[in-house]
Amino acid sequence: MAASIFLSRILGLVREAVITGQFGNSTLTDAYFAAFSIPDLLFYLVAGGALSSAFIPVFSEYLHTDREDEAWHIFSVVLTLMSIIVAIFIAVAMVFTPLLIQITAPQTDPSKAAEFYPMAVMMARIVLPAQFAFFIGGILFGTLYSRNIFTVPGLGPNIYNIGIIFGALVLSQFMLVPTAGMSWGATIGAFIGNLLIPLIAMRSIGLKYKFSLDTKHPGVRKVFRLMAPVVFGLSLPGVFALFLVAFSSWGYGEKSGFISSFRQANTLMQAPLGVFGQSMALAVFPALSQFFAQKNMDMFRDQLIKTLRSVIYLTVPVSFILIFASSDVIRLVYQHGRFTAEDTARMAPLLTAFAIGVPFWCLQPILMRAFFAIQNTLRPILLGTLATAIFLAISFAVVTTNQAPYALALGGSVAAIALVILLIKSIAKEVPGLNTAPLLKTAVKASVAAIPSTAVFWGIFRLSERFPSLDNKYAALALGLLFGLISLWVYYFITKFFKMPESAYLDRVANRINKKSKPEPN
After folding, report:
1. Which pTM does this prediction carry?
2. Position 204 in a domain
3. What is the C-alpha to C-alpha distance for residues 418 and 461, in angstroms, rounded to an integer?
């Protein structure tokens, strides 16, 4: 799962590099990114992220207690109902797209708004149908996760990114508004990666679907009861990107390219979240659900703590690099074509502020799914809503008092830290014997080890600037990846010297790779 999402994040960075190289940071890209605020709003309103989180525990409960036929019946009913509901929402959003764009991405400069809104509305209507693929794909993925199949769900975001890249490089050449090519690419990629391929995989495991609106089945009612708090809550992970676009547009929208800068800096911050946080959460969720269904809370507790410690271990060094070498990272990923040194300078403080919260953003999906696994969706959503209130208060204060843009990004990190503290304190009350001291111990040792490893990355990068090879984009990117690997190896050896148990995780990965790379004996 981590490997597939790592590939997805790499493709995501390639996607962003292609976008900035092709179109730069301008009103055109601002409109493209703002167009996704409507699909994001729809995804939140219909609880897209919570659908699989509510479905997996219930499906697993029936599946692992010898009620497989009932599990497939629940699957059929949920799939039928959500198909109807999502189709209706998409149709309504299509009609009211102009109004919704004005709400989610307000423009304070009238001269820019005249060009911005028509393009954003047009592109939003192109990508809205893709949400059907995401919603239904979420149910299909949840079913595959419950059967311990992770490869096919991992393909979804990769194909989606390839679709956008294809749209930027090829389809844009045939569009009156060039960025609309990326919108078409996104929609095509979403349907292939989230519907077509998962359906083929589902047939191989014995897909049993039958049209049904049996809302009286207790399993179906439990799924929607678990979803309800997410539908009516404003949990930070679900709405952060949406509110970030709104506040960046409101506070800094009159400056061309600033919406794009916020979006792209957040994308860099989200890379470790996907690779370490979301992949770990997706992989551990079926196991936690199974342990709870089988009343094995000791294994539930041990698996949760081990996963949280692993995430802290893996994300702290990445956070340090993004904080202290933000300009270097941005220059490697984005600075080419129409993306200038001025764009890098504008984005660097935003990335630094976002990066402070990286370990906490990566911890929250695991903690959220720990609650979902014990079939308690109300409490994490209430805590997530409280964290959202913190972010909104900070954002409103930042924008209304004309503070520097990085303060808005820093507000997101503060809210993420607050959410993790609240979630850990709360889950400790639900899981007997859960001790958070190991988490603090891992965080302290990881931070100490990350200081010299980050210094190595920064120092090597300064030395390399003397060589003209960095003028070549691909050479610079290759060198940057090499420097990152050297830095992480330094981190690994220091943590191994500290005898951190998490370092053994990398040992196991290396041993597994070595075994696969060795030729079979004759």
Report:
1. 0.70
2. yes
3. 34
